[in-house]
Amino acid sequence: MATSGLKGILATVVTRGVTEARARIFGHVINQTGQRSAHKILRKKLIGEKVSQWYPHDIMKDDPLVMARKEQERLSRLEMLKRRGKGPPKKGQGKRASKRK
């Protein structure tokens, strides 16, 4: 009887040690009491002002000269496609509209 008791104690100690090692390796939190905790919520990505400070400022969106140049490039490319006959069709004259007729 004493050996089975000792075996049981050793088994629980080994199991607890393996569980703690696994938690340390993979970054898990051991919840021995089984109560609800906020750990799952706290693990999620932060959103808000603090996080936005980490990312660099995007000059493309704020500078009107950059945006105007991009728009001008887009319009010139569209004009070139239209001259070659490859531009977008007028409203109501696309592939789908021609299938209905």
UniProtKB/TrEMBL annotation:
Subcellular location per the Swiss-Prot or TrEMBL entry: Mitochondrion
Name of the molecule in the record: Small ribosomal subunit protein mS33
Principal localisation: mitochondrion
Region listing for Disordered, in residue ranges: 78-101
High-level lineage: Eukaryota, Viridiplantae, Streptophyta, Embryophyta, Tracheophyta
InterPro entries: Ribosomal_mS33 (IPR013219)
Keywords: Mitochondrion, Ribonucleoprotein, Ribosomal protein
GO CC terms in record: mitochondrion; ribonucleoprotein complex; ribosome
Pfam family, one: MRP-S33
